[in-house]
Amino acid sequence: MPDIFGMIMKEASEGGDAAHKIEREDGYIRETNGIGYLAEMENWQESERFAIEHAKGPVLDIGCGAGRVGTYLEGKGIMYTGIDISPLAIDVCKDRGLSDVHLMSVDDLKFDRNDFNTILLFGNNFGILGFEDKIVEMLKDFHKVTTEDAIILASTRDVFATDEPRHYEHRMKNRQSGRALGHVRIRMHYREYLSEWWDLYMCTSGDMDRLASKAGWYLERTFGPSSYYVGLLRKL
Predict the structure, then answer these.
(1) What digits encode the pLDDT tens for the residues 2-19?
(2) What is the rounded distance in angstroms from the CA atom of residue 226 to the CA atom of residue 17?
(3) What does the DSSP assignment read for 72-97?
(4) How far, in Å, CA of 102 to CA of 225, rounded?
(5) Percent of the chain surpassing pLDDT 70
(6) Domain 44-187+195-235, what fold?
């Protein structure tokens, strides 16, 4: 399977708009581009701009993409490590001057250290593993690589923060099938390429706190509107 996500990162880093489509399993399609993956901090979502001010190094960035967050943090003198499952995204990060970036999956962390003070899950990455049980295991794993006073800055979307009929219908189908209301299965269209389907989980702040509490964390506060918010989690 081609590294479609990485191809989008690479085109964007070379000055292209990296236009692509994101398709949900019910046929809903959103057209977007890759420019946001390189955005300067002042152009980030409001929730991320406020939340990032609480980051303290060393920082571990989950799903670092093209390195927009890492570039900002290193510019502030903050120690930064990024991981991503896209080889091309890692190449783009290195081309942009980030050295401590690794090809690694969040469900198989391989670090011989436990001194990270901040875990970043920007870009809807709180739900990157798609299912509640996997997210809880991910949060438990973060315990092993972080300090006692560490925080997690995790972004997601409250699926109730829209009256869009297609999104409401999708929630109702999830309810009828017994799936979490915020569960989505999506795939990406880019040029002549089509990715495999993958699962993503989005949730209310109450559900974020509920899942966090199962893994030894709690939700202290949120930043930004519920349509795209960042939760600050601390260890219990």
Answers:
(1) 999 999 999 999 999 999
(2) 28
(3) HHHHTT--EEEEES-HHHHHHHHHTT
(4) 32
(5) 100
(6) Rossmann fold (3.40.50)
Decide: pTM greater than 0.85: yes
In this model, does residue 92 exceed pLDDT 90? yes
Going 211 to 217 to 218 to 219, the CA torsion angle's sign is negative
The candidate with the shortest Cα–Cα distance to 88, out of 193, 207, 168, 170, is: 193
Edge-to-edge strand list for the sheet holding 59-62:
101-103, 80-84, 59-62, 116-121, 146-156, 229-235, 217-223
DSSP 26-39: TS-EEEE-SGGGG-
Q: What is the DSSP string of 44-74?
A: S-HHHHHHGGG--SSEEEES-TT-HHHHHHH
Helical residues (DSSP H) of the chain, grouped into ranges: 4-13, 46-51, 68-75, 87-95, 132-144, 165-177, 205-213
